[in-house]
Amino acid sequence: MKRSVTGRYETSRVGGETVRAFVPHPLPPVPPVVLSGGRQMLLERALVALGRLDSISMLLPDPHLFLYAYVRKEAVLSSQIEGTQSSLADLLIFEAAEAPGVPLDDVVEVSNYVAALEHGLTRFREGFPLSNRLIREIHAKLLSSGRGSHKQPGEFRRSQNWIGGTRPGNAHFVPPPPQDVDECMSQLERFLHDQDTDLPILVRTALAHVQFETIHPFLDGNGRTGRLLFTLILSNAGILAQPLLYLSLYFKQNRADYYRLLDQVRTDGDWEAWLDFFLEGVETTASGAVTTVQHLVQLFKEDSQRLSGSSRSLSSALRVHAALRERPVTSLKEICRRTGLSFPAATTGMNLLLKLGMLREVTGGKRNRVFAYDRYLDILNEGTEPL
User: Is the pLDDT assigned to residue 222 strictly greater than 90?
Assistant: First the structure.
């Protein structure tokens, strides 16, 4: 449905030129979004896919085994949308040994994303509400080091920013003037906590994402923060027992449509086209995560059976394998710490996994070696190739 422009323009002087900045109307949209017919079916299919994901995650021996690497895959993908070239393997090697040769700035940026998400989830467990304060805290973690760390981490902007172009005067889109940011974000916070709305949580999440990206409240890191909001809103609402839904792969694979539909909401008020895209993404992503969990469960089962068929050093090899399920890229020192094995015993167990072709040594050195559980990484690596 086209409702015409979904905000107002404010004219100001920035850098000696006249700029028209867009200030969005508060949510929810007027007239209300249409959820009947095919869109209702999309919503129901997305919810079914989320329910299946929530159920199948319980098949894992410990859902946190999957979360560790899956959260890092999301961090890589979300940062790649912003232009980083870091891969999932780069990040895991960096975390395991801070190994030389990986693109440091890119890996630090991705590592900060992981820290920001984990901070938000920890705050929820402590009973802290989803709020502008928490969003600012998450942003501070996101930009705590590396690129963007000088651009007011954790603070709403106090100057004009823009999207596309070299300056506000030739930009593709100019978000609200800085003096309007606090009020726009306060309105968004009220929408997220509105107890009177009958909008389903997935719809509210979709609307909130567009609103956040339109406000663009920070000088840098808005895209990554906005994508984190998906997970935080749904986790806070209890839709998933574990934070397993991440849409960055879907957005990366459909970048042109993603940006086009955001623009279409602002200029035409076509929230329904965006909702269709978003709900299809939720279903696709949740179904893909279910498949990933199934493949991991099968992999762990097959490799445990292969190890059980070998009598040599079985006990230490099984403990090394269990540690690698927690950290698919790791060092012998870390294996010893996690398993309690002595260095010789861990080495013996690791050598058996290497002999069976389950592992690969990735540094090429003789000291401080790092090992990768390749089949695990292959399952996770879909779509994480740099753009």
Answer: yes
Structural contact between residues 372 and 359, judged by C-beta atoms closer than 8 angstroms: yes
In this predicted structure, which of 27-31, 68-72, 224-228, 315-319 has the lowest mean pLDDT? 68-72
Domains, the chain, with CATH or none = 7-291 (1.10.3290.10), 295-380 (1.10.10.10)
Its pTM surpasses 0.85:
yes
Q: Which has the closest alpha carbon to 304: 92, 53, 61? A: 61
Exposure string of 267-290, with b = 16+ CB inside 10 Å and e = fewer, is eebbbbbbbbbbbebbbbbbbbbb
Residue 147 predicted with pLDDT over 80: no
∠ CA 179-180-183, nearest 5°, is 120
R_g of the chain, CA atoms, integer Å: 23
Round to whole Å and give the CA distance between 89 and 71. Answer: 13
Task: Tell me how far apart the alpha carbons of residues 129 and 237 are, in angstroms, rounded to a whole number.
Answer: 11
pLDDT at 364: 76
